[in-house]
């Protein structure tokens, strides 16, 4: 708690928190990516949240997640993708910082408040591609289905990204979203980040109190891993471990580095594991 109420007031505050870690990574001499807008987007609120939570956790996972998403997105663009749809876009600045073709359609979808805040910060900046922002509560299934149908007609080869979104949803909500994304034939691939049940429990022990104060606890942690999406028409094309990626990027303490030599667990996931998966529609 702060003098003004919960440290994290709502789901949008988590975007400010995550932006701090992108800023910290950008300022490293060996940075995996550069986000010159992150510090300003995080603002004082983001710094306050990160300062409180940093005492309770390692900070490498969030920059590693961003790096992995960047890698998959760049691959999609090189392979001829014509649209990227960022659901729960938060304070992501990829349209401004990544090397993207002007012809690429980039669509950000999120709540009105967080998008208005981002626009106020970036109003003098120019995106590198064709950027559109859609103010929408993704919990409104009818509205999102309508949006997906519209975007599906405008794209030939679209990539969906849901960085940091699914963990706040129930398994049923994630399944419904997967079903809705499968409807437009032009929605070809989807990037998701995942944690195992054991890692979710660890994270909630570390700083779950901050999230529960504002009723945004971590929920989705399928023991099937990326295979959870197979019955919904999405097959895992590539799955990358965050721990192993962090080891390659020299971001780990000696203990975590030793753990990185363990083989990735196979479903059902019984030990702590986190990763990023590239999914491809299978029907």
List keywords for this structure.
283 residues; Rossmann fold; 7-stranded mixed sheet; alpha/beta; 17% strand; globular
Structure, described:
The protein is globular. The chain is built from ten helices and seven strands. It has a single domain, classed as Vaccinia Virus protein VP39 (Rossmann fold, 3-Layer(aba) Sandwich). α3 crosses α9. Helices cover 43% and strands 17% of the residues. The mean pLDDT is 94. The chain has a seven-stranded mixed beta sheet with strand order 3-2-1-4-5-7-6. By secondary structure, it is of the alpha/beta class.
Low-confidence stretches: none
How many beta-strand runs?
Answer: 7
Order of helices and strands: HHHEHEHEHEHEHEHHE
- Output the CATH topology: Rossmann fold
Supply Rg.
18 Å
> If classified by CATH, what would the architecture be?
3-Layer(aba) Sandwich
Mean pLDDT: 94
Q: Give the tally of structural domains.
A: 1
Task: Give the SSE layout.
Blueprint: H1 11-26, H2 38-54, H3 61-78, E1 83-87, H4 94-97, E2 105-110, H5 112-122, E3 130-135, H6 141-154, E4 158-162, H7 171-182, E5 187-195, H8 197-212, E6 234-241, H9 242-248, H10 254-259, E7 274-281
Parallel strand pairs: 1-2, 1-4, 2-3, 4-5
Antiparallel strand pairs: 5-7, 6-7
Helix pairs in contact: 1-2, 3-9
């Amino acid at each position: 708690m702060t003098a003004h109420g919960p440290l994290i007031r709502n789901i949008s505050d988590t975007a400010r928190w995550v932006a701090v870690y992108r800023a910290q990574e950008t300022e490293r001499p060996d940075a995996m990516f550069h986000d010159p807008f992150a510090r300003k987007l995080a603002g004082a609120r983001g710094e306050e949240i990160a300062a409180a939570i940093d005492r309770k956790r390692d900070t490498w996972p969030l920059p590693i997640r961003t790096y992995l998403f960047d890698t998959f997105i760049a691959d999609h663009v090189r392979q001829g993708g014509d649209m990227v749809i960022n659901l729960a876009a938060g304070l992501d600045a990829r349209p401004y910082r990544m090397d993207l073709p002007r012809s690429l359609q980039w669509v950000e979808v999120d709540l009105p408040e967080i998008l208005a805040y981002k626009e106020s910060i970036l109003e003098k900046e120019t995106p590198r591609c064709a950027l559109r922002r859609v103010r929408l509560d993704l919990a409104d299934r009818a509205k999102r289905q309508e949006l997906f149908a519209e975007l599906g007609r405008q794209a030939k080869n679209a990539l969906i990204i849901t960085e940091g979104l699914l963990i706040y949803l129930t398994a049923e909500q994630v399944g419904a979203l997967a079903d809705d994304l499968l409807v437009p034939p032009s929605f070809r691939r989807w990037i998701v980040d995942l944690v195992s049940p054991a890692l979710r429990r660890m994270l909630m022990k570390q700083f779950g109190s901050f999230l529960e104060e504002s009723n945004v606890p971590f929920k989705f942690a399928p023991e099937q891993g990326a295979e959870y999406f197979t019955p919904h028409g999405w097959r895992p094309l590539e799955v990358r471990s965050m721990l192993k990626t962090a080891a390659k990027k020299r971001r780990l303490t000696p203990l975590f580095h030793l753990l990185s030599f363990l083989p990735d667990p196979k479903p059902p996931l019984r030990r702590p594991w986190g990763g990023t998966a590239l999914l491809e529609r299978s029907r």
